[in-house]
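Entry 0007
Protein: Monocarboxylate transporter 9
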Amino acid sequence: VLPLPLHPADRMVFQKPPDGGWGWVIVVVSFFTQFLCYGSPLAVGVLYLEWLDAFGEGKGKTAWVGSLANGIGLLASPVCSICVSSFGARPVAIFSGFMVAGGLMMSSFAPNIYFLYVSYGIVVGLGCGLLYTATVTITCQYFDKRRGLALGLISTGSSVGLFIYAALQRELIELYGLDGCLLIVGALSLNILACGSLMRPLESPSSPRPEKMCVDKVPDQYFVYHEKEKTTEENISILEKGYIDEKCVNNVPDCKQDIILNKNVLSSINVNEKDTYKKKVVEQTNFCKQFAKRKWQLYLTYWKETMVLFKNKVFSALFVAILLFDIGGFPPSLLMEDVARSANISEDDYFMPLISIIGIMTTVGKLILGILADFKWVNTLYLYVTTLLMTGVALFAIPFAKSYLTLAMLSGILGFLTGNWSIFPYVTTKTVGIEKLTHAYGILMFFAGLGNSLGPPIVGWFYDWTQEYNTAFYFSGLCVLLGGFLLLLAALPCWNACTNQSSKLPPNTYSYKVASNT
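Output (structure tokens):
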């Protein structure tokens, strides 16, 4: 989506990123913003069990609430980017804080599951998407050389939030019930307003503030000609009356001659005004036509570049892999608590909530995989493929876990492997190049959100159909393994050699040179 061009006076002049100073305050408040907004949606598995008991709906229908909350922000990422670009990170963060808090509080009064689709799924999910975009944007403005470190620190906020909110929500439910839990969590989310108020834009103090345009400075072509609302005859009669009254008092015999002369003069003036008005209307019409044509050309260019991206076989395989990974890999973070209850594991055996284990291990995985990706001898694409294949194997092992210990171990493994999100931008950059990173990453995030939205309901429908989770997790593991093998096949050097001999790539297509780092 292409925003309208800004007037030169409306553009902000930014300083060079300081890589420190107030930037570290931005990192801290961005960390807590992601902690507060993503804590409940990522730990929604605890609430999922309560909603199953409260509304008595099927697992597939109930799973839509958590999947929408986690997927809608990615699906609406283009809209979120436009909002942050148009209004700035601070106003968007404050407004989104109200959205998240309001959505959580409204959910405490939900009379049915459909109300939760809107209050928790859409309102909270969209608020989280806006906050994610705002925190990433403001952090990138403040950091250049240390941007990777800063983004890595703020991204752990969501994982820490998952770890803490899983235990917090369970404790609040025991003390105050489901409704009280949602009210308290919503009240905690209001702290996002304080965090957002500290997101000071990096604007140069020497740059003048854009002045409000006065009426007398508005170009002529933007005026509405209200005087044209009156008819020509009315204008002539008014002018004639004033002119004749003045002349006839002084010299009565010349009235008729003056009337004829005045009519001729006014007629010529009116014709000139009509020509000027028509000319300005034509100019404004041509301007609108040229503007629409230019925007249409930009959209055509966007879609042409999109088609060029999909001609890159590694990018096409990456798009399929991320979609299948989120369909199969996201449900455990939402449904693992219900898996334990279905396996008749007593809550007395719990040392720690399974979702909390997933959260803390996701944080560890993001850090370790991110560090490995910085080594020159590590091929990031092969590293990402390895995490996909291992995730598929772990999903296949879930049906064989019949105790808390085995489920806890599998939760830790899945959480660690889910940390591959930290290296996904590296893989995308290596695949399409830094010039097309924004375009390609936006497309991939859209399909990641689609996978997040579809995965848990599909697994829930499998349970409603078979009354057990075994088939559902076999399906999930198959999806992730299929995506991993397709990406591995597309990245193999021998496959690149075969395709390069048979056909030449388009001039603007990027080819991933896997063998260069091995």
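Curator remark: The chain has a mean pLDDT of 78. The two ends are 38 Å apart (CA to CA).
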